Amino acid sequence: MANPTGFLEYPRELPQRRPVAERVHDWFEIYRDLPDDKLRQQGARCMDCGVPFCHTGCPVNNIIPDWNELVYEARWEEAVRRLHATNNFPEFTGRICPAPCEAACVLGIIEPPVTIKQIEKAIADRGFAEGWVVPEPPAFESGKRVAIIGSGPAGLAAAQQLRRAGHAVTVYEKADRAGGLLVYGIPHFKMEKDIVERRIEQLRAEGVRFVTGAHVGGGRPADPTIEELRRNADAVLLACGAEQPRELKIPGRDLGGIHFAMEYLTQANRRCFGDQLDPAQDILADGKHVIIIGGGDTGADCLGTCHRQGAKSVRQFQIHEMPPENRSERTPWPMWPLQLRSEGAHEEGGVREWNVRTTCFSGDEQGHVRRLHGVRLGPGPDFAPIEGGEFTLDADLVLIAIGFAGPVRQGLVEQLSLVLDPRGIVAADESYMTSADGVFVAGDMRRGQSLVVWAIAEGRKAGAAIDSYLARTGSAERVAGMVAAM
Asked: How far apart are CA 21 and CA 303, in angstroms?
């Protein structure tokens, strides 16, 4: 504990957001960095607890007090090494993780918690700026081959762990760019995509092979089949995500102008890349009355995107009641608190409404949505409609952001006859192996819709499980070397 009184001397500070009037006209990240002196002060607030709950609050079990102290002492290179010991991609989590570590911070019992997330981001960015983050190719080759399907955070984390253990790793991605959700699901204003690309380049330099535009099991003549991958690899990892959107089954759903959130966000990200899109398939908010159904992070991403596209008006609906401003007794420390959270997009405009249910849509003669019909609800758990609570709003574009129902069934899940659990996600044993021998699963496909930090944790654990599986036929010397490399 470098500064025993730091938590008494310094208040919690967060990075400032760029002015709304400036940032809604571009797609750059919205947060300014904290200067080094402020970061050292925030590191000094860490109490280096005897039982640091932040460790277990963090899905990758980051050794947070250690690198907080190293930042306070300006030992940045050591902090970079300590951070990467548990997290392959801290520059991702430092930007887009909701920071369950901060919710579990012991200081948070009596004071605002330590600013862990911003310190993590600063360490990762300093590591790249100073040239301390470099490729780490394996010292030996195991002779084993692993095929990974999906290049989101789970697939990338597993790929790096397995490659550093000496295995030949090939990552297959159905999109034209590697990165999965990180590239096409998260808006540029939350994480600029050169952040993802520089990490993928590191993996390439370590020997990971990426095959893009390859929809394994997709059925096109050029698509690889799962049978080919199983024949040519010693193990296969499925890291395809939970891409099946949850449907809104109400009258009028088939009208034009009603889309799933991820369709909209993917198009917006492609425009930022400069990709040419089919004008007939455009999903744009400019000059339109937009309604976003769903109050979570994906809905907020849609909200910020609508602002930047020049929507005439934007409303975001949530069926549940408005949460309390601060942690309530329903979610005591160190649980993840049920409380009101506002993203940068909410600061930029739009209207948030709680206790609202959409009942149907109506459209014009061309079959395009023009009205949303809904009803206001009473409190939970019943959420019964309020008498006289019916309403109608103009709606030219409706975005459905109510979550995901697990992995897409058509394709790999059906072709491998994978067993699903009662929630509809791929079942796996304690070694992350599915019901198909030699086929493993990680990330949202196994866990269900979750956070990027959980996907990284899943990828790391699945990588270790696959390494153990591959090592069973190896020599004792090679096994020891692989375990040390992991």
From this structure: 16
Phi (first) and psi of residue 313, to 5 degrees:
-155, 150
Alpha helix ranges (H) inside 110-150: 116-129
Ranges assigned E (strand) in 174-288: 209-212, 235-238, 258-260
- pLDDT band, very low/low/confident/very high, at 404 (cuts 50, 70, 90): very high
Interval 144-156: pLDDT, tens: 999 999 999 999 9
Tell me whether residue 272 is exposed, middle or buried, using C-beta atoms within 10 angstroms of its C-beta: 0 to 12, 13 to 18, 19 or more: middle
pLDDT tens-digit readout, 112-170: 999 999 999 999 999 999 999 999 999 999 999 999 999 999 999 999 999 999 999 99
Q: Which of 58, 61, 42, 56 is nearest to 115 (CA)?
A: 42
Q: Return the SS3 of 267.
A: helix
Per-residue pLDDT tens digits for 374-386: 999 999 889 999 9
pLDDT for 277 equals 92
Q: Token pair of 73, please?
A: 């002492």
What's the chain's Rg over C-alpha atoms? 23
Q: Percentage helix, strand, coil, to 5, in the chain?
A: 35, 15, 50
- 3-state DSSP assignment of residue 457: helix
Evaluate whether 466 touches 147 at the Cβ level (below 8 Å).
Answer: no
Contacts of residue 422, defined as CB under 8 A and 6 or more positions apart, other chains included, come to none
Give CA–CA dist 12/134, Å, rounded.
32
H helix or E strand, kind and range, residue 168: strand 168-173
Phi, psi of 53 (to 5 degrees): -65, -20
Q: Where are the alpha helices (DSSP H) in 73-171?
A: 76-84, 90-96, 100-103, 116-129, 153-164
Beta strands 351-353 and 356-363, pairing class = unpaired
Q: Pick the closest to residue 46 from 82, 91, 95, 2 (CA basis).
A: 2
Q: What is the DSSP letter of 238?
A: E
Q: What is the pTM of this model?
A: 0.94
Burial class (CB in 10 A: 0-12, 13-18, 19+), 247: exposed
Residues 6+ apart with CB under 8 A from 383: 319, 320, 355, 357, 377
Residue 127's nearest CA partner among 137, 136, 138 is: 136
